[in-house]
């Protein structure tokens, strides 16, 4: 990791931040950018491959999330550039640098997709929280950017979870450990 941070240390950065610290922020933000670009594509995949009686509700719920996630990615990329880094936007770089696997559900019932998507959001939200913690030690502007995005991501997960929750407050996918397991538990509701 130290070598990776050294490679990301910019030649210049914003006033008040040391170049090495900016390199650490750039590393955090690159992973956020990859996760947001991946989420955008995953949400479109769900949008295109959702079927079943809840199709239209989920199909229409996803597009505003796609639009906001694209805005988030743009904000993160611009922050990377402002810090003096390079904002990688190519699919090859995303795949090479990401720390997670591809979304694994193809054409499936709406509730199955939402079960899997709930786990996607959980992983992303946990990573954003870790990024907030690291950014908070270096730069309040980057921390603020990530906090704003966290609020939106948590709201999107709430929208997803509303379809997976019983009237008694039980989340159907609460003990799922993989997308396929979460999709199967979600499909049981559908």
List the helices and strands and how they pair.
Layout: H1 2-8, H2 19-49, E1 50-51, H3 55-82, H4 91-97, E2 108-109, H5 110-136, H6 140-162, H7 179-189
Parallel strand pairs: 1-2
Helix pairs in contact: 1-2, 2-3, 2-4, 2-5, 3-6, 5-6, 5-7
Walk me through what this model shows.
The longest helix has 31 residues, at 19-49. The chain has 7 helices and 2 strands; from the N terminus they run H-H-E-H-H-E-H-H-H. The chain has a two-stranded parallel ribbon. It has 190 residues and is mostly helical. The termini are far apart. Helix 1 packs across helix 2, helix 2 (19-49) packs antiparallel against helix 5 and helix 5 (110-136) packs antiparallel against helix 6. It has one domain: Ferritin, core subunit, four-helix bundle (Ferritin), CATH 1.20.1260.10.
